[in-house]
Amino acid sequence: EAGVAQSPRYKIIEKRQSVAFWCNPISGHATLYWYQQILGQGPKLLIQFQNNGVVDDSQLPKDRFSAERLKGVDSTLKIQPAKLEDSAVYLCASSDSKDSPLHFGNGTRLTVT
Amino acid sequence: EDKVVQSPLSLVVHEGDTVTLNCSYEVTNFRSLLWYKQEKKAPTFLFMLTSSGIEKKSGRLSSILDKKELFSILNITATQTGDSAVYLCAVEDNYGQNFVFGPGTRLSVLP
After folding, report:
1. Is B91's Cβ below 8 Å from some Cβ in A?
2. CB-based contact (8 Å) between A25 and chain B?
3. In terms of CB atoms within 10 Å, which of A3, A91, B42, B98 comes out highest?
4. Does the distance separating the beta carbons of A101 and B98 come in below 8 Å?
């Protein structure tokens, strides 16, 4: 089965610019997650979708971050405007049901200068 | 707030050594504990543990969960340089498939 696809792999932007990341989960996986992983730390959940509805976005900095999953398949995560502390790897993951593990994409490494 | 603590945070061993990585957790309504291996890219799934005392094995790796004491260990025997990675522990709650990750243990295996 094809894995979780993410693009771009790398992105370098200046602070106050905007950026968008894309994720296509494993086919049939209803639950999609975006995690932020700062260097040296574990992944931190930003937002969780179940189909096209938001399950948990309590840790999403909503003044600058937004995410959507309009048709319940692929998803985009946007940052506008970016700050230096947003430099991190943004991981997308999907899962098909409870009792199933998360499957991760290769991530997007964002550097904000 | 759910919390996952891993120890040690960093470990350097030589090939052939056996290592034990620790994960302790606090979660309101526990469902499962997962171990992942992260090299340069995506974390890859190793084990999912739901029941106490039942060891899961895959080659030289094994893991066990203690739900009474709220911890898990990941053992790697006869380590190889290819085992060098960050090992992440995560717990899933029983509400909405919410996974909380620990900071990881960075393992370096020297030849």
Report:
1. no
2. no
3. A91
4. no
- What's the rounded Cα separation, in Å, for the pair B6 and B21? 8
- Quote the Cα angle for B52-B54-B59, to 5°: 135
Contact in structure between B98 and A36 (CB atoms under 8 Å): no
Residues of B in contact with A55 (CB under 8 A): 96-98
What one-letter code names the amino acid at B44? T
The two tokens of residue B106 are 């960075």
Q: Are B11 and B86 in contact (CB under 8 A)?
A: no
Contact map slice: B 21-60 vs A, CB within 8 A: 31-32, 34, 36, 41-45, 48, 50
- Alpha-carbon distance of B56 to B42, in angstroms, equals 22
Which of B1, B93, B97 to mutate to test binding with chain A, by most A CBs within 10 Å of its CB?
A: B97
Token code pair at residue B93: 């709650």
Closest CA to A5 of A20, A17, A19, A22: A22
Tokens encoding A20: 């968008």
pLDDT in tens for each of the 111 residues of chain B?
889 999 999 999 999 999 999 999 998 889 999 999 999 878 999 999 998 888 999 999 999 999 899 999 999 999 999 999 999 999 998 876 789 999 999 999 999
Cα A93 from Cα A100, distance rounded (Å) = 12
